[in-house]
Amino acid sequence: MVPSSVSNSSSEANSNWFLVCGLGRLGQHCLAALKEFGVKVVAIEQNHTHRWELPNIESLIDELVIGDCRQNQTLEQAGVRHCRAVLIATSNEQTNIETALAVRQLNPEARLVVRSTKTNLNRLLSQQLGNYIAYDPSQLSTSAFGLAAMDLGTLGFFSIDGQRLRVELRQLGDRDLPKRPLHDFNNRQQRLLAYLPAGSAIPIKASDYFYQWQEETRPQRDDTLIYVEKVDYLSVLAPTPAAQTSRWQSALQQLTWPALKRQFRQFWQLNFQQQVQRVAIVSGLIVLLLLGLGAVLLGDGLGRPAIFEVIILLLGGFADLFGDLQDLSWPLQAFALGLTLAGTAFVGVLYALLTEALLSSKFQFVKRRPPVPQQGHIIIIGLGRVGQGIASFLQELRQSLVAVSFNLEFDQSILPDLPLVIGNIQTALTQVNLATAKSVVVASDDEILNLETALTAKALNPNCRLVIRIAGQQLSQNISQLLPAAQTIGASSVAAEVLAGAAFGENILSIFRLYNQTILVTEYRIEADDTLHGLLLAEVSYGYGIVPILHQHSAQSTPEVSDWMPSHTRQVKVGDRLIVLATINGLRRVELGERSYLPKRWRVYVEKALNEDAAFDGANAIARVTGCDLHQAREAMRHLPQTLPQSFYEQQAERLARDLKKAMVSARAIAEQPD
Fold this sequence. Notes:
This protein is of the alpha/beta class. It contains 26 helices and 23 strands.
């Protein structure tokens, strides 16, 4: 339980102690993410277990309480009254809601972060309980899976106040080689996130990408740029002329003889659930054969077309027609009797199958699904909650999809516009045109089945892009060694980073993946005691290693154009709204006030001003970039040449040197000499 020394000091306890209820897979990942912030964590678990999902997780727990987290006694033992936030992450939805209600009675101020899928209930609880936020872990990672599968250079896609933003990866070729330095990529429409020279190694941590370049660098061929940009949503989703005709082309392609032959072969290879369809096809073909044969033979015997007589015979009407057929020879009469017997058998089979189909459908007539795409499509394997979320996300982005479900009783009313194949691994993968697919997302709830499916897909199409849902950390590492080109994403680990960030009072708007690291789109509302208060955005960016994409002043009801991709010379004040891109480590640095991401080891040497107007403008530039008093800046311009006394971040110093040069003041950025 929480030590008494901490319990006696409410302010200290509320800032340092966090409670995690439920140490299943998600709870363990939440605990590990919280420990990244350097806080103390007490955990409640129903039963003591000796098997943990994460290695050494037990050593991260400051206090472990065994008991029912819904009980006041257990919560009191865990010191809930002195905790800053409570993360409720058990696998039972009812237990989570009951625990949240109990916690609020004991601690009216604690931040409640709850694992829950009940959207409407969560909205109502947020209004009643206050300081309450709930997430559905299965839905938090859907965009990460979907974007990883697209493989079109789009790493992220999210919306803020109706404005759509896209995170794009672009490898430069000869045709699109820019003729400008890197600092020119930052404007009101876009902000550079990372620059990787051709052949450079990929950093282990995603945060190592931010601001790791020199401003005056000019990109070369095969260099990689990653940037966030404002986009017009309709233009992003508008289908190209080729996309507009793709459905018709797909339908026409399926009418060709090779396509028809392939589809028939695939259909005939199906087992179990399609056996009934096989019987129906065979019975129908035999009935048609008998109909044609009978029309020819009986027509010759009667001297007139006998199609209707044959139909009546096939439907069991031999006795009704026997009087009309007295002029037939006995062989033809025997043949007519044979038609009646065969018709009774095979038409009866068709009647039975039709009756079964009507009863099994329960009279719920579902719209026919689109055909399986022929090429360039994404295959989603597994249509549980995660798979359905991935499919919905990709459908919103107008991607060509087909889904595979291993559940033979899958509800056909779910995602009716999605091409769907139902069956086992071997049969289903033969029907989704895997050889021509661009990506395969394996997202079932069974990790071993995901591994088997991924290996099968890789064997059938070595060039396809694989995205695999794997929750186990050790298994994920082993699969990365086995399939180095595949992307493994753990829904629990991704969700845990969101829940941990939300525990500190931040609002996590969206997430995306950057080279196997999670980037959180995080909203701050600045308060007087925040570590962001009073800082220039340059200090926020380079000190904490986060990327501001929106800075809105407290007096504004809606963002203005200048608030997007804001200048680093703006100052953060109480009441402001700040939205940033950050890793979990970036959020940790903000929480702890550690501006240690990049060192302040640069100075600016100012040599001379061309004239008095240049000196005037130069002083304004110094005050704007450094945030110093304008009088102090003008005094510095009167005593040139000199090195400004302030220390700068490298890109901040280069920015000031450029602004001074624009003002006709000779200046340059210089590195400080090490002691």
